[in-house]
Amino acid sequence: MASRCALGDPSPWDPLDLPWDEMPDTPGVPRDRDVRPSLDVILELRRNRMSTVREVVEGLTKVSLRGHTEPVEGPGWPEPRNYPVRECLLFILNEEWEHRLYAERDLMPWRRASRSALFRSPSCRLSR
Q: Domain map of the chain by residue range?
């Protein structure tokens, strides 16, 4: 939403992007569930997205926050129309929050396993 609506990029989706599961197939939006990129590739894509959001947020003013985006023509999501800038920002922040919750949930079993292994290690036993 940041690239397409706020920055006017008609084709912001990276080939590695995945839309939400219920989104219908949409021209211009990839959906390759079989791709398995390396961690380095994923982290670089994430850094780029964070930089884009930072660019949008840093460019906001009280006036622009009350404004509307310009429609971007062409296939893709979100559909081409103008959006309240505030709505775009809230959407982006909500997405970030949800992704954090998913990451914390998905990483919790690994965290538990590594803690368990740490406490079983001979070097971590308490001396009496």
A: 2-124
